[in-house]
Amino acid sequence: MNRRNQVFWQQLAKYFSGELTAPEAEKMERWIREFPEREKLVSELHEIWIKSEQISYPLDADRAWERLTVSIGEHQNTRTVPEVHSHPASAAFNTGHTSLPKHQRAGEWIRWTTLAAATVLIALLTALFVMNYHSQPSGIAEVAESRLIQTMYGERATYILEDGTRLVLFAGSRIEIPAGYNEKNRELYLEGEAYFETAHNPDKPFIVHSASSFTEVLGTRFIVQAWPDPNNRVEVIVTEGRVLFGQRHGTAEPGEKKEVLLSESQKGVIFGDLVPYVEEIENLDEYIGWTEGRLVFNNRELNEIMPRIERWYNISIEIEEDISAIKITADIDSSLPMSDVLDGLALTLGVDLLFHGNRKYSFVKKK
Questions:
Q1: What is the number of alpha carbons within 13 Å of residue 164 lying toward its C-beta?
Q2: Which of 184, 196, 314, 363 has the fewest Cβ atoms within 10 angstroms?
Q3: pLDDT-derived band of residue 109, with 50, 70 and 90 as boundaries?
Q4: Confidence class of residue 230 from pLDDT cuts 50, 70 and 90?
Q5: Residue 145 falls within a domain, yes or no?
Q6: Which of 360, 306, 312 lies closest to 171, judged by CA?
Q7: Where among 263, 285, 307 does a domain terminate?
Q8: What phi-psi label fits residue 174: left (phi over 0), alpha (psi between -120 and 50 degrees) or beta?
Q9: In this structure, are strands 360-365 and 316-319 parallel, antiparallel, or unpaired?
Q10: Is the domain of 128 the same as that of 212?
Q11: Is the same domain home to 215 and 255?
Q12: Looking at the structure, do residues 171 and 50 belong to the same domain, yes or no?
C-alpha cells in the first residue's frame, strides 16, 4: 500500500474512533456522503469495527442473564422477567450431537466470528479502495483550529483531556473542543450526552455549552444531556460537587433567575424558554449507570426509554401506540447480546418482537 492510501486508512480509523479534529471529521463526512454506495460501505465497515472491540473471552452467558433484572408496571401492576439461563432459541433445536463445554463453544464462536469479519473486511476494504482511489477527501490531514470527538450509535468512549478532565460519551454524541483549550479557558460544546469528571482549577472554570444552555464548574462530577430537541430540552445531573446551570438564551421575566446552582443528587432542567428548575434525584444509577455499561430505567414509559436503547445498540425500534405508555423498571447489562435484551423485554411486556431486517425491529401487541 502506498503512502497516500496508508494515510487515508489511518484517517478513516481515527474517524471511527472519534479522534479527528472538527474540520477533518467534516471533510471525511462530506466525502462519505458523496456517493450512497460509499456511505453504505463505510457503515458496514464501521459495524465490523465496533464488533471487533466487543468480542471478549471467556464468555459467561449464565452470569450475564442473571444480571438482567427487568420489571414493568402499569396501573400499579408489576411483572418480573423469569430467570433464564440460556438463549431462548437454544432449546428449540436439538441435533442429537453432544454439546461442547461452554468455554469451548465460546472459543469456536469467536474464531468463526473473527474469520467471517476478516473476510468481509477484506471485501469492504477492496471496494472502498476502488471508490477512494481518485477521490480521497482533500486536506484531511491539515492542521485544524478545533477538535471534534464523537461516538457513533452503538459506541461508548472515554477520553482524558490535557487538563486531566475525564469524559465519557454516550452513543451518538459529539463534543467540539475549541483551539486553545486549557490555555486561557476550558470551554467546549456538546451535542448528545456526556459524563464529566473535571479537574479542579479555580483560575479556569470548566464550561460545557449546548444549543440552549451552559454548565459551569470548578471541579466536580456531572452529566449533561443535550440531545437535538425542538424544545431545546437540556438536563444536568450532579453526582458530586456543585455546578452553575443556566440559559444561553431565553425570555425570563424581570426578577426571574436564568441560572440555578445545583448540588449533589440534584437535576437541573431547561425546557424551551422556561427558566431552569431543579429536581431532587433518589436514584443516581438511572443517570450514571451507562458510564459503567448498564442501562438503568426507573418507572419510565416504554416510548421514553426506546431512544436510549436505539442509540446504545445502533438499531431502530417502533412501538405500537397501545403499548407505548407502559412503564418499565430495568437494569440491563451491556454485556448481554442485543437479541437477548429485546427478547427479554418482549417476554416481560407480553408482546411480540418483530424483526424487519437492516437492524429494524418493532414491539406489537400479541394477536
A1: 9
A2: 184
A3: very low
A4: confident
A5: no
A6: 312
A7: 285
A8: beta
A9: parallel
A10: no
A11: yes
A12: no
Which of 42-56, 94-108, 129-143 has the least mean pLDDT? 94-108
Residue 232, C-beta contacts closer than 8 angstroms, at least 6 positions apart: 211, 212, 213, 270, 271, 272
| Residue 6 pLDDT grade (very low, low, confident, very high; cuts 50, 70, 90) | low
Query: Is residue 270 located within the same domain as residue 178?
Result: yes
CA 16, CA 224: separation in Å to the nearest integer?
23
Grid cell digits, residue 35: 456517493
Buried b (16+ CB within 10 A) or exposed e, 315-329: bebebeeebeebbbb
CB 89 within 8 A of CB 193: no
* 126 shares its domain with 165: no
Beta bridge partners of 167: 159, 196
Residue 362 identity: S
359, pLDDT greater than 50 = yes
What does the pLDDT read at residue 59? Answer: 38
The pLDDT of 128-142, averaged and rounded, is 45
Please tell me whether residues 121 and 219 are part of one structural domain. no
187 neighbors 211 (Cβ within 8 angstroms): no
b/e per residue, 120-152, with b = 16+ CB within 10 A? Answer: eeeebeebbeebbeeebbeebbeebeebbbbbb
Going by C-beta distance under 8 Å and a sequence separation of 6 or more, which residues neighbour residue 246? 213, 214, 257, 258, 259, 260, 270, 276
Q: Identify the domain containing residue 161 by its residue range.
A: 157-285
Q: Is residue 324 part of a domain?
A: no
CATH of the domain at 195: 2.60.120.1440
Would the pTM of this model clear 0.70, i.e. be above it? no
Alpha-carbon distance 61 to 336, whole Å? 8
| Longest CA pairwise span in the chain (Å) | 78
Could you give the CA distance from residue 160 to residue 211 in angstroms, rounded to a whole number? 24
Question: 98 CB contacts (<8 Å, ≥6 apart)?
Answer: none
pLDDT 10s digits, 160-197: 999 999 999 999 999 999 988 998 889 999 999 999 99
Q: Which of 219, 251, 285 is the last residue of a domain?
A: 285
Q: Is residue 264 one of the residues assigned to a domain?
A: yes
